[in-house]
Amino acid sequence: MALLATSYRISYEFTPNPDPDAKTIVLLHGLGLSGSFWRSLIPLLSVRYSLLVCDLPGHGLSGETSEDVTFATLAEDLRLLLESLNISSVVLVAHDASVYIARRLAALTPSSVERMIYISPYMPHTLPATLTELQDRRLLLEQAPMTVYAAAMAHKLTGTPGDALLHQRIVQAHERVSKALYIQLLDLAGSEQALHEQAHIRKPLMIISGELDASFPPGMAHIAHMLFDASAFLIVPGASNLTFVDQPLYTSDFIDRFVRKTPFEPGKPKPVEDELKQTLRVLWSGRLPSAPERNRLTIRCIGTFEVSLGQRPIRLGWNTRHAKSILMYLAYHRSATREQLCETLFPETAFPKAMRNLRVYLNHFSKLLETEDGQEPCLTIERDTIKLNIEIDCDLFVLLRDLQSASEQADSAYKLNQCVTLSEQLQSKILSGCFDPFSIALKETVEQAWEQLSLWAADNCCEREQYAEAVRFLQSGLQYGTGEELLFYDRLIAISQRTGNAKELRKWMRMRKKACVPT
Questions:
Q1: Boundaries of each AB hydrolase-1 domain copy (predicted)?
Q2: Could you identify which of 5, 99, 280, 355 might form a hypothetical disulfide with 94, taking C-beta atoms 3.0 to 4.6 angstroms apart as the criterion?
Q3: How buried is 514 (Cβ within 10 angstroms: 0-12 exposed, 13-18 middle, 19+ buried)?
Q4: pLDDT tens-digit series, residues 314-359
Q5: CA dist list (Å): 71 to 11, 31, 102, 194, 453
Q6: Calpha distance 169→105 (Å, rounded)
Q7: Burial 306-325 (b: 16+ CB within 10 A, else e)
Q8: Do 364 and 253 share a structural domain?
Q9: pLDDT value at position 198?
Q10: CATH number of the domain that residue 328 is part of
């Protein structure tokens, strides 16, 4: 069967399960292949699940596309296909570079993706050996006929080198794909920010690797499991990259067990594993790990204000002598002169008096941050300069970074997913009890950024007729807005009119009229 997508016809095969409550598994093939390579898996999984197999554009039986292909457009095509089949919830099984289509679909429609399974995912990284391999692969692709390139790939994809028929199928599948399209998709996959973007997809994830896979070896699967914080990873014995072709029984069993697993619950804290994950992420990002600190100053200022020095909570003393304001300024800047503190935090107080008061404030502040015997002091108060000499973990600073990242995100699917995550964070007051100019400026930065993002997210949801989600974004934006209330009320009124909700329409029109009355 086929469906007309954005610029080509998608070839697909849907095998419904007789059980109306059966889950639907979507099988996405890798570059140069086709949906036919899942055929060994279909009879094994169709006993319990409905199955949807489709070909990428220019692959298998799908039509060619005249437009530039992106993983975002391919995810949108898949969304349209699911919509046409009235499929509202799926488990995504993706091989090779198709993991980026799966990831974008999960960002585009989070509620429709239940779980994700990556089989031998294509992961761009900077290891010299893999960079050399990728360069050699790219050179062969550019200089040799597709048949020669496909023959070289066949030896890497399968763990059964003596299977001439399978090698012929791999070569024929690659020959079906134009070299230009293949290079375009390969380059797209090579430019993916796998670690940064996967962090925003909060779905149970299993990673499968073949024991004999040289491109995505078991060691890399373990690292990916740690980097992506995956729920599980498994190694298929006697299989190479195409685990579902080399060992369909093992692969189908792994998939079935993962899909049927009870809902995932957060486990107990694992400090050693968490530290190992963080170290791997730092190394993967190409940065050297910083020297370990004796202590960490943890500041929670979204919701209840809390401060901990290492494992020791500091509960009292923050609401007196401007301790909270001084802490936030130093946490943000790490150091400041006495003059800067006075001018920024106490601009309405005469300077000589502010300097005298500051001595009292700093004496109180230093007692709050006293370290235990034998530990290096986390605060240095010199004649002219005050410094925080400690690693700082502040939820507000993370929020500011995430707001900036979402504002600069060009991919609308990921941007919307980031906005969903941000809306969950922005459900409590920020810096409660802080009224100094610096703290107020921080709060206004958050409010202005979220005002723009919530309006964008609401408009994006309205384009897809997801009006309930749009209303939630608008209500959140109103809560943190800085004065552009009419922009929100106009949109809420328009949504109420579209959905025929007379009660909400009256409510928002009344609120809009009230906002227009001069105070």
A1: 24-244
A2: 99
A3: exposed
A4: 999 999 999 999 999 999 998 999 999 999 999 999 999 999 999 9
A5: 17, 12, 9, 13, 23
A6: 29
A7: ebbbbeeebeeebeebbbbb
A8: no
A9: 55
A10: 1.10.10.10
CA atoms within 13 A on the CB side of 511: 17
Residues 6+ apart with CB under 8 A from 12: 1, 2, 3, 35, 52, 53, 54, 55, 81
Q: How confident is the model at residue 415 (pLDDT cuts 50, 70, 90)?
A: confident
Exposure string over 27-62, b if 16+ CB within 10 A, otherwise e: bbbbbbbbbebbebbbebbbeebbbbbbbbbbbbbb
Same domain, 63 and 172: yes
- Specify whether 239 is located in the same domain as 358: no
Tell me if 425 is assigned to some domain: yes
Q: Tokens for 461, please give them.
A: 């949801």
Tell me, yes or no, whether 400 lies in a domain.
no
Stated as kind and residue range, the H or E segment containing 495 is: helix 485-499
Predicted pLDDT at 425:
81
Both structure tokens of 262? 């009870």
Cα separation, 367 vs 333, in Å, equals 20
AA identity, residue 305: F
Q: Which residue has the tokens 């919509």?
A: 83
Identify the domain containing residue 80 by its residue range.
2-271
pLDDT at 398: 85
pLDDT digits (tens, 9 = 90+) for 238-269: 999 999 999 999 999 999 999 998 765 555 55
The answer to whether residue 83 sits within a structural domain is yes
pLDDT grade, residue 195 (50/70/90)? very low
CA 190 to mean position of chain CA atoms: 18
Cα dihedral 237, 242, 245, 246 in deg (nearest 10): -30
Asked if residue 411 belongs to a domain, the reply is no
Rounded CA gap, 220 and 125, in Å?
11
Helix runs in 90-217, H state only: 99-108, 128-143, 146-157, 164-175, 179-190, 194-198
